[in-house]
Design goal:
The chain is of the alpha+beta class. The protein is about 25% helix and about 35% strand. The chain is built from 3 helices and 13 strands. The strands form 4 sheets. The chain has a 5-stranded antiparallel sheet with strand order 3-4-12-7-10, covered by helices on one side. It has a 4-stranded antiparallel sheet with strand order 5-11-8-9. It has a two-stranded antiparallel sheet with strand order 1-2. The N terminus is likely disordered.
Length: about 180
């Protein structure tokens, strides 16, 4: 089934749903930041400890493996960043509720899964949780974390060629045509 937006702009029906989620998660992130800035809410990031792990660069494949492990305390709500590449995720402890443009999921440790390209998620920690993401990178140590973030994280959906607003019907139609 296809839906038509205006003259001849067909889109896959789930494309508008994905874009609506993107609008919602960006608005929620902005509202959370405003609440923190105004003192209405407290940032949970200070309680979310982060550890970084690296393998040496593999000569055959020309890259290193970077693992980023975060501790999410029970009751914390975190909105992640937009990922440029598919990557592995491991939840080694805890239970979370995850909200993405692909739907809501309950994930319980131990759990292994793959994140999709362009994914941004909101996570509520139902229990103390340890979550690790694994990325391939050309860099090999913590001195290069800024470069690694530029390599694996997109600052906006537009930079990924993805649409962040339902107010863009032409781009929405183009997105619906992509596999």
């Amino acid at each position: 089934m296809r839906v038509t937006y205006g003259k001849g702009f067909d889109v896959v029906p789930n494309a508008p749903v994905k874009v609506r989620f993107r609008e919602t998660v960006l608005a929620a992130q902005q509202e959370m930041q405003q609440m923190i800035d105004s003192g209405i809410a407290e940032s949970a990031l200070e309680d979310c400890t982060l550890k970084h792990y690296f393998t040496p660069k593999d000569e055959k494949y020309g890259c290193s493996t970077y693992a980023r492990e975060i501790f999410l305390p029970k009751g914390s709500f975190v909105i992640g960043k937009i990922h440029r590449h598919p990557h592995l995720n491991f939840i080694s402890k805890g239970r979370v509720k995850v909200f993405t443009e692909f739907g809501d999921k309950h994930l319980v440790a131990p759990c292994t899964f793959i994140s999709e390209v362009g994914l941004k998620r909101a996570v509520y920690a139902e229990e103390d949780t340890i979550w690790t993401t694994v990325h391939l990178t050309e860099f090999e140590n913590e001195d290069d974390l800024v470069k690694i973030e530029q390599e694996v994280i997109s600052p906006t959906y537009d930079d990924m060629g993805l649409i962040a607003s339902t107010n863009t019907p032409l781009k929405l139609a183009e997105q619906g045509e992509k596999p």
